[in-house]
Write a structure and sequence with these properties.
It contains 15 helices and twelve strands. By secondary structure, the protein is an alpha/beta fold. The chain folds into two domains: about 260 residues, 3-Layer(aba) Sandwich (Aspartate Aminotransferase, domain 2), CATH 3.40.640; about 140 residues, Aspartate Aminotransferase, domain 1, CATH 3.90.1150. It is globular, with a radius of gyration of 22 Å. It binds pyridoxal-5'-phosphate.
């Protein structure tokens, strides 16, 4: 039975007993797997038998525990298949290399994670002769104009890091498919909130390091797509995951798997708090950007695309104008009030704050940074869910008063 709801699909995907009847799946730590008959081995190598039929070859190829986590990711994203890798960057680079050969071309959003930008802007042109054109992903005419007969991929983030612009996935998919191009979406910022594959994306990639794992203790990634695509990542001659080898350890897969069941609760709580803060900051006149505010340029689009159970995501940004004031705010928030941590990354249970212009987006050229709208005083806040909402709000308000970004507190909520 196929169901449209990710949570229902996930419940089905997770219904697997451990080896001794354990309520958690067993961890298959072996790096190599026996066959019962010698004739099976050549079949495995020829790709005539594979992981979906329960046939395993070697730990850098499919591993049963990692494969089971992949099934959970496929359930979340509504794709036929998925597999995990050692990091988000491993997942992204494998997806691009699977779709592009030397000489091919990518049309990429001009606002993507700094590492993805560097991969497309610097690494792939030099190492693989795969070149990218960066465009404003909300400008469909510009995207179409950038497509050439070499273009194989349109690459974007569902919610862009750090500008929080939302990709119009259905229209991007339509445009891509009209030109026989694949749409690859990085859904790191919005698991469950947005379902790119059901909106038309061909491949969905994740840094599971962020919301999916949720505890800032594991680096991990996933690629979700058709079974053919995922099997291709492991091809013994041409598969980028098989050849480059950024393998996820099965013990890591088992750990992440234990955090998937409360992903929905966490994502909803992150979003609830981010929305509350965003609304109150706006009331105080602080320049705040959040896709759930009616003045956000993609508010209407977000309303159309999102799953309502998860608000508008757990990330907001404040523009303090200068890097100095951004730093002053983060300093007071961390060191005087204990509101959160000055650290990159996101999706952690505690609040994380960073200044993208001088950190996670600093790989970008000054020109690309300004055309993407990343100001030097921008502070990205990944809103955590520890403490109470009111306690955290008091801390945030106090810090804004301290640096004179606001003149008075909001009247006490009734
Ligand atoms: C962090 C991040 C990545 C990279 O993920 P790693 O797990 O650190 O390799 C990619 N895309 C986005 C949107 C990210 O936030």
């Amino acid at each position: 039975m196929t169901t449209r709801n990710p949570i229902e699909r996930l419940a089905e995907a997770r219904h697997e007993f451990g080896e001794h009847g354990g309520v958690n799946m067993s961890v298959e730590a072996s790096t190599t797997f026996t066959v019962m008959k010698p004739g099976t081995m050549p079949e495995l190598f020829e790709g005539r038998k594979a992981a979906p039929e329960g046939c395993y070859l070697y730990g850098r190829h499919f591993n049963p525990t990692v494969y089971q986590l992949g099934r959970q990711l496929a359930a979340i994203e509504g794709t036929e298949s998925a597999y995990c890798a050692a990091s988000g960057m491993a997942a992204i680079s494998a997806a691009i290399l699977q779709l592009c050969n030397s000489g091919d071309h990518v049309v990429a959003s001009n606002t993507v994670y700094g590492g993805s930008y560097a991969l497309l802007h610097d690494f792939l042109p030099t190492k693989a002769n795969i070149n990218s054109t960066f465009v404003d992903i909300t400008d469909l005419a510009a995207i179409e104009a950038a497509i050439t007969d070499k273009t194989r991929v349109i690459y974007a983030e569902s919610i862009a890091n750090p500008t929080l612009r939302v990709a119009d996935i259905p229209r991007l998919a339509e445009l891509a498919h009209a030109h026989d191009v694949r749409l690859v979406i990085d859904n790191t910022f919005s698991p469950l909130l947005l379902s790119p594959a059901s909106l038309g994306a061909d491949v969905v990639v994740h840094s599971m390091t962020k919301f999916i794992n949720g505890a800032s203790d594991i680096i991990a990634g996933a690629v979700c797509g058709t079974t053919e695509f995922v099997q291709g990542l492991m091809d013994l001659h041409q598969g980028p995951l098989m050849m480059l080898g950024p393998t996820m350890d099965p013990t890591i897969a088992a750990k992440i798997s234990l955090r998937i069941p409360h992903l929905a609760l966490r994502v909803a709580e992150h979003a609830q708090r981010a929305e509350t803060f965003a609304e109150r900051l706006q009331e105080l006149g602080v320049p705040v950007s959040y896709p759930g505010l009616s003045d956000h340029p993609d508010f209407e689009l977000m309303q159309q695309l999102r799953c309502e159970d998860y608000g508008f995501g757990g990330i907001l940004t404040l523009d303090l104008g200068t890097e100095q004031r951004a730093n002053d705010l983060m300093d007071v928030l961390q060191n005087k009030y204990g509101f959160g941590f000055m650290a990159v990354s996101l999706g952690y249970f505690d609040t994380l704050m960073s200044c993208p212009g001088s950190s996670t987006s600093s790989e970008m050229t000054d020109e690309d940074m300004s055309s993407a709208g990343i100001g030097e005083g921008l502070v990205r806040i990944s809103v955590g869910y520890t403490g109470t909402t009111e306690q955290r709000w008091q801390q945030l308000e106090s810090a804004l008063l301290d640096i004179a970004a606001i003149k008075a507190r909001l009247p006490e909520a009734v």
